[in-house]
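Example 3.2
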Amino acid sequence: MSDLEKNLAELIDKESIRELALLYCRGVDRKDGDLLRTLYTEEATDTHGDTFDGGAAAYVDFLEKAFPYMTYSGHHICNHLIAVNGDTAEGEIYALAYHILPDGKGGQIEDFMCVRYLDKYQRCTDGRWRFAQRVVNYDVRQQQPTQVTLPENSDPGVGFFSERLFAKGPRQ
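Structure, written as tokens:
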């Protein structure tokens, strides 16, 4: 394989891994557990600061229980460094995460975080990249009461996009 072919293959791998990270954000923000389940290897672990530490399947179960209480969730990736080494890779993502959650007293709180996702990725036998290990560090976290109101309308993306990439549900 020539240097050009190696470089091109690495770029393709990195773009596939970037899409994996973006699909994770979409899965959480659109409350799509079926999608999230397809983004991890079977043995994957996920450590989300002080909120969860365990297997990825249990993490998705944990999220699905929280989805009905999440008034809003928005994950925004800022920087994503990736090092590919054959069928494994490592990555560090700087991201902003903003949630509106119940405060337990009848009101709501804004939960804003500057996070770093420390990831290990694995190319699976089907050729797709998946998370093998994810550790989330909250570099900054701020919670405060909010009076934010959100529109009552449904997601404008539903019915707008025709490509499978934007559909709800698992990825093959």
